[in-house]
Amino acid sequence: MTIPAWHPLIVHFPLALTVTATAAFLIARWLPAAKTAAGLSLVGTWNLIAGAVGSVFALGSGLAALLGQPLSAAAHAAVARHAKWAMLTVFALLAMAVWRGAGTAFESRPSRPFLIALLLATAALIVTGYLGGENVYRYGVGVAAVLH
Fold first, then answer.
1. What domains, with CATH codes, occur in the chain?
2. pTM for the full model?
3. For FRET with 96, which of 6, 18, 51, 123 sits at 20 to 30 Å CA-CA?
4. Cβ within 8 Å of residue 94, ≥6 positions away
């Protein structure tokens, strides 16, 4: 299996883990049951950390997939936009994981400022994923030619 084939597999981990973390934190914030909220906060924290680490691997695999990839001018512009969003998103997710993981009890309910920042980081991740999908389905980036 070549390096480009790994990127589509790897990107699903930070997407799923981060969206799950965001949902867990949102529910934990407003759930009246303290024990359940603590459990969801713990799940959210570990999912966020794993998603942030996974985003680093997704960025690396995406950049590696570009090596030797012939691109049209339009595809190059689209890939550049996707890469810029990816770098911003990785930075945001790592910052969110540090915010949550450094000095905060993993079982504590998330603060409102944390949730707002996490929602923005999650939105950036979704935009990044959408742009990656556009690269494949609109510009054919990373798609092998099939001879009939």
1. 3-137 (1.20.120)
2. 0.91
3. 6
4. 52, 55, 56
